[in-house]
Amino acid sequence: MMIKNTKPDIADRTPKRQGINRISAMTKALLKPMIDQYGEAYVGILLDWPTIIGERYAKLTAVQYLKFPKDRKTDGILYIRCVSAAMPILQAQSPQLIERLNRHFGYRAIVNIRLQAGLVFDASIQKKKMPEIPLSENAHRTINKLTTDIANDELRLALQRLGEGILKESERVNVK
Q1: Structurally, what CATH architecture does the domain formed by 21-117 represent?
Q2: Is the pTM higher than 0.90?
Q3: Can you tell me the distance from the alpha carbon of 169 to that of 71, in angstroms, rounded to the nearest whole number?
Q4: Which end of the chain is more exposed for a tag (fewer CB within 10 A), N or C?
């Protein structure tokens, strides 16, 4: 008697769905230690902070930590680090912020907000771009000569761009 394999073959699965499942599983696996240590409410605030507080204030603030009374998951105090110039505005709007946070969770998770002045890292600030250094004709010829034997057009173009980037970076270092 032969036992039939009931699992669908890998070829039967759609690659898109399989990729989404993998990302979802990886995300859950990566967040699990953080959720176990800090709690689901804190991780939820961190992940959705710009949505909860608004993009404008998210750039000026950072969630420090969330503290609940012993053996409870309600009536917590949220500690927020913020730019000192934004403290009076956030203090005045703390009742609305508490309401937004509680609406986000669907229960009375936060009852108080404590603001702490400090520096806040803004990921949206871009690094200042270095001036573009043009490559010499000799460098272009060398790159083209090294990549002419590559049959695949996409690979050849990618390697040419890589070579240009390496040579530009080396010229930038040599100029300094």
Answers
A1: 2-Layer Sandwich (3.30)
A2: no
A3: 56
A4: N
